[in-house]
Structures are given as C-alpha cells and as structure tokens.
TrEMBL record:
This is Peptidase M14. InterPro entries: Glyco_trans_1. Signal peptide: none annotated. It holds the Pfam family Glycos_transf_1. One of its GO terms (biological process) is lipopolysaccharide biosynthetic process. Residues 171-316 form the Glycosyl transferase family domain. The lineage of its organism: Bacteria, Pseudomonadati, Pseudomonadota, Gammaproteobacteria, Cellvibrionales. GO terms for molecular function: glycosyltransferase activity. Keywords: Transferase.
C-alpha cells in the first residue's frame, strides 16, 4: 500500500528552505505526498499528517488569531486521527524563536504534544533537550532521522553577493551564513573578529536581517573594517553555492541551537565548520570527525577564534567525508519506515 501523506509544508517554503522539497521529492516512490495549506487546513483520507514548524502559528502578534489558527490545526489533526491516520511532528524547534505570549505558547505546545502520535528528531541531542523541556511527553513514539544533505540542489550563478565582490583571492575566507537572528551570535563574532591580529583573514556575513537588525556600532565596524564584509539580503540558491564554494570555513557562532541546516549545507560543500561545543554540533563531530568540525567552549573570544584558525590551517585538506548516511533517499526511506511503525503502533 502506497501511503498518502499530508505535509506541512511539502514545497511551499522551497524558496527560503529547500529541505522539505528535497525530502518529499525523494519520497515519491514510497508515498504520495500532498501540501497541507496553513490557512485552509483541509484534509482528505491521508494516512499521515506530517508537521514541521507548527510553532509558526504561535509567533503571531494577535492572541485571538493564534487561538483560532491553533484550534483549526487541532481540528485537522482530529479529522486525520478519526479516519485512522496518524500525526507526526519533526521537531526542528522546541518552541518559537519569538514568543510574544509565552504562557499561552507553553500551554498550546503541551496540548499539541498530547495529541501527537509520533516525533522525529534530527539528532540525539535534540531528543535529549526535548525530554528536558517536556518530560511528560518523552514517551511519545519517536525516531532519530538526520537532516539530509543538499547535493545537486545548489548551482553557481554570480550576482550582487558573488564571491569576487567580497572574498579575497589570498588568505583565509570565513563565511557566516543564514538569516540574522539574535541567537546566532553575529554581533559577538564581529566584535571578536575585530580583535584578531591578522590581516590575511577575512570574514563575510551573508543573510537577511529581517526584523532583527544589528546594532549601530557593529554595523559601523563592518563598514570600516576592510577585512569584514556583509551582504544583508535574502541569499538565492545560486548565490549560496558561490559563497560556500569560495569560502575556506563556515563559522556558526550560535549562542543556542537545536538543529542546524547550515551546518549540513557546509558539509554538503565539503567546508569545515567552526562552532560552539553544544547540541547538534557535538553530534555532528561524533559522526564526521575532528577534521570537519572545530568546536570551542562558549563564549567565543579572540583567543578561541585564533585557535580555530590555527586548526583550520593545519587540518588535512584532503580529509574524506562520507555523507551517504545523509542521502535524501536514505532519509526518505527512514521517514516512511517510521510512518509505518506509527500506523501499526497499538493496532
């Protein structure tokens, strides 16, 4: 029997994050996957409703709108379950990045969890953090299925963020990539980088500022330092390929993180990673080794960044990197296997 799956999202977020599109494209031989629309929230006779970021509902400004959309989501889940279907959540975030109504948010997440049939975690670390935050829901059936790689998705195309405009032909080029958010530590990275006594190391920051912005003094530092450049805009897939291929290492100075698609993207381009010794980065280092991840103890300082640069200059440039376990086909098969486990659970 070919499974009927309703995914939220399936491909509607492809322009900002191709993760779902790649996953469900790889799943096509195994399941018929349809888009779950976040406004209509209609269902048919699907076997699985697969949620990814239900916490987006909880980021709203107006409490009445949050309650209404959350109510509609719960009703959709109930319809699926009354027909014998199951609801699964891939836990990308434990809670919304932005919480305007934390008490309401906490209650709603617990209510959502009480109605789920299964959970997918992208790492063992995220599973552990989930159980710390939601101990009453730690018994929900789960599977740890890694974030797939991005091989074959990104193609080069030079544009306003192309590497020739920002990266030097000599020296070491560091890239910090992704949407600018407070927990990603960009301001600290700029201040620390400014303290380095190295004229041959260059830092490029690429990502959309959105509503978050950066402080005036950090913006001034970027503007005045010839070794720091920034492209604060949405980075297209073509620009992404160019920036990653032109960098020597990817710096992810997050203060906190559950999962990191950017880390997987770095490995996809065979670029070493400099990051804090927390959560998913520890898991990735266990799998891919010390030639691909340099992890420092927080907080980031100039001394620690210098040590990372020393590691970078001495690491084996020809180190092997086997990403076969992150193949979209492998991840899709593991996901469908878990769908079937959940469907058969307690049957």
């Amino acid at each position: 029997m070919k499974l009927q799956v309703l995914a939220w999202p399936k491909s509607s977020n492809k322009a900002n994050n191709p993760y779902n599109h790649i996953l469900y494209a790889a799943m096509e031989p195994l399941a018929d996957v349809h888009e779950f629309h976040g406004r209509k929230m209609s269902t048919a006779n699907e076997h699985i409703l697969h949620l990814h970021w239900p916490d987006l509902i909880l980021r709203g400004r107006h409490i009445w709108k949050i309650r209404w959309r959350f109510f509609k989501l719960l009703r959709a889940m109930e319809r699926i379950q009354k027909q014998g279907g199951k609801v699964i959540w891939t836990v990308h975030n434990l809670k919304p990045h932005t919480e305007r109504h934390p008490i309401v948010t906490s209650k709603m997440i617990n209510q959502l969890l009480s109605q789920l049939d299964g959970l997918i975690f992208l790492s063992e670390a995220s599973r552990s953090k989930f159980c710390e935050m939601y101990p009453d829901h730690c018994s929900i059936p789960f599977s740890v299925i890694p974030h797939h790689h991005y091989h074959g998705w990104y193609q080069n195309k030079l544009s306003e963020c192309d590497s020739d405009a920002y990266f030097e032909k000599t020296g070491t080029n560091l890239l910090s990539y992704g949407k600018i958010r407070s927990h990603k530590g960009i301001e600290t990275l700029v201040r620390v980088f400014k303290q380095l006594d190295s004229k041959s190391t260059h830092l490029h920051i690429a990502g959309n500022l959105g509503k978050h912005g950066i402080s005036t003094d950090v913006k001034s530092t970027i503007d005045q330092d010839n070794n720091i450049s920034a492209c604060f805009k949405h980075i297209s897939d073509e620009e992404t390929a160019d920036l990653f291929q032109s960098s020597d290492a990817i710096v992810l100075p997050y203060t906190t993180v559950l999962n990191s698609g950017t880390a997987i993207l770095a490995l996809t381009f065979h670029k070493p990673i400099i990051a804090p010794a927390i959560s998913t980065f520890n898991d990735l280092k266990k799998v891919f080794g010390e030639q691909w991840l340099y992890l420092y103890e927080q907080p980031l300082t100039a001394e620690k960044l210098n040590e990372a640069l020393n590691w970078l200059s001495h690491r084996d440039k020809n180190a092997s990197l086997d990403l076969s376990s992150l193949s979209p086909q492998v991840v899709a098969e593991q996901t469908v296997d878990f769908y079937r486990q959940v469907i058969n659970h307690n049957d």
